[in-house]
Amino acid sequence: MSIAAIALVAVGLAACGDDGSSSLERNTGPSGDRSRADVRAGLGGRTQEQGSLFGPGGLLGSKSDKKSDSGGGTGVAVNAYLWRASLDTINFIPLVSADPFGGVIITDWYTPSETPNERMKVQVTILDRELRADGVRVSVFKQQTSPKGGNWVDAQVDPRTNIDIENAILTRARQLRIAGGS
Question: Is the pTM of this model over 0.85?
Answer without folding.
Answer: no
